[in-house]
Predict the structure.
Amino acid sequence: MFGGIETTEGMIANAILHLLAHPEQHARIQRDRGLLPNAVEESLRLEPAAASIDRYATADVRLGDASIGAGELVTISIAGANRDPDFFPDPDRFDVRRENVRHQIAFASGPHRCIGMHLARLEAHTAIRRLLDRLPRLRLDPERPTAPRGLVFRKPPALHVIWG
């Protein structure tokens, strides 16, 4: 039930927050809307709306010093994987031109990949494009800062903005 509601809302709110919090990146998108899909992917990489997922190990495995037995519950941090500095250089930086951003795993991977990911992306692209077209001078209210919250589902509780 949460798929397509909570996650899509969070995806859009997080992307808007990232763009407005980084005026130089926002300006790039305003000049070149062709960067918008990459900006959405970069926002998903930095702050996936679903930050962790649970899976069960299908076989015994060893990861570093940890042993995981077949059938054991494993909680996977999508947020952590998307910030792997060996794969995403300068992982905490929001960069709408990041070349390998399509490798982020905000929608998971394999047989449990989100079935609605294409619709979610379309909704995010449409919502953000409309917002940028209709409110080009939108900016965050510096007197009412916000940040994503939540352990599993992550999004800002509110986006306080100024227009004009």
Notes: The beta strands are 52-56, 61-63, 66-68, 73-77, 139-140, 161-162. The chain has a mean pLDDT of 94.
